[in-house]
Amino acid sequence: MTQKEEQKTKNLFNFEKPLMELYKKIEELRKVSESSQMDLSEEIKMLEKRIETLRRDIFSKISIMQVVQVARHISRPTTLDYIGLICSDFVELHGDRNFGDDKAMVGGIAQFEGRSVVVVGQQKGKSTKENIERNFGMAHPEGYRKALRLMRIAERFNKPIISFIDTPGAYPGIGAEERGQAEAVAKNLREMANLTVPFISIITGEGGSGGALGIGMGNKVLMLEYSIYSVISPEGCASILFRDSSRAQQAAEAMKISAKDLLALGVIDEIIKEPVGGAHNDPEKAANFIKHAIIKNLDGLLKLSPRELIADRYNKYRKMGIFAEVAELADAHDSKS
Amino acid sequence: MAKISIHEWFSKRKKEKESDYKIERLDVPGNLWVKCYKCNAAIFSKDLKENYKICPKCGYHFKLSAKERIEMTLDENSFKEFDQYIRSKDFLDFTDSKPYAKRLTEAIAKSGLNDAVITGEGTIEKMPVKMGIMDFSFMGGSMGSVVGEKITRMIEHAVESKQPVIIFSTSGGARMQEGIMSLMQMAKTSEALGRLRLNGIPYISIITDPTTGGTSASYAMLGDINIAEPGALICFAGPRVIEQTIRQKLPPGFQRSEYLKDHGMVDIVCSRNELKATLVKLLKFFSN
Ligand SMILES: [Zn+2]
Question: Given the DSSP bridges, would you call strands B117-124 and B165-171 parallel, antiparallel or unpaired?
Answer without folding.
Answer: unpaired
